[in-house]
UniProtKB/TrEMBL annotation:
Domain (Core): residue spans on this chain: 1-103
Matching PROSITE patterns: HESB
InterPro entries assigned: ATAP, ATAP_core_dom, Fe-S_cluster_asmbl/transfer, FeS_cluster_insertion_CS, HesB-like_dom_sf
Protein name: FeS cluster assembly protein
NCBIfam families: iron-sulfur cluster assembly accessory protein
Source species, domain of life: Bacteria
Coiled-coil positions: none
Protein family according to the UniProt entry: Belongs to the HesB/IscA family.
Pfam families: Fe-S_biosyn
GO MF annotations in UniProt: 2 iron, 2 sulfur cluster binding
Any single GO CC term annotated in Swiss-Prot or TrEMBL for this entry: cytoplasm
BP GO annotations: iron-sulfur cluster assembly
């Protein structure tokens, strides 16, 4: 199980944690929402919970609750600038499709993902 960060994403995470003045990692999650089924959640992790898995890539840390791990399996996270907007962008092989606005996604039919 791996989740990787591009150097740009790792830099952004480190900058945001420094700006915030505390925190160990970026916390990733998902929730059911939107027209396609799921959307990503972002938060800061100030501590690691028993149910968390910690990943490190390019000297930055990511925390994911174990119940969401299969959704992020083999995903790569980048940080991009598109016009006036900047955001984390996922290259996630577990995503089947995204909605027109890009805010939500549906999952591929996958044995490991059926639990969600």
């Amino acid at each position: 199980m791996t989740i990787t960060l591009t150097e740009r994403a790792a830099d952004q995470i480190r900058r945001q944690l420094i700006k915030r003045g505390k925190g160990l990692a970026l916390r990733l999650g998902v929730k059911k929402s939107g027209c396609s089924g799921f959307s990503y959640l972002f938060d800061f992790a100030d501590e690691i919970q028993e149910t968390d898995e910690l990943f490190e890539s390019n000297d930055a840390k990511i925390v994911v609750n174990r119940t969401d791990l299969s959704i992020f399996e083999d995903a790569e996270i980048d940080f991009v600038q598109e016009g006036l907007n900047s955001m984390f962008k996922f290259r996630n092989p577990n995503i089947d499709s995204t909605c027109g606005c890009g805010e939500s996604f549906s999952l591929k039919k996958h044995e490991k993902l059926q639990e969600i």
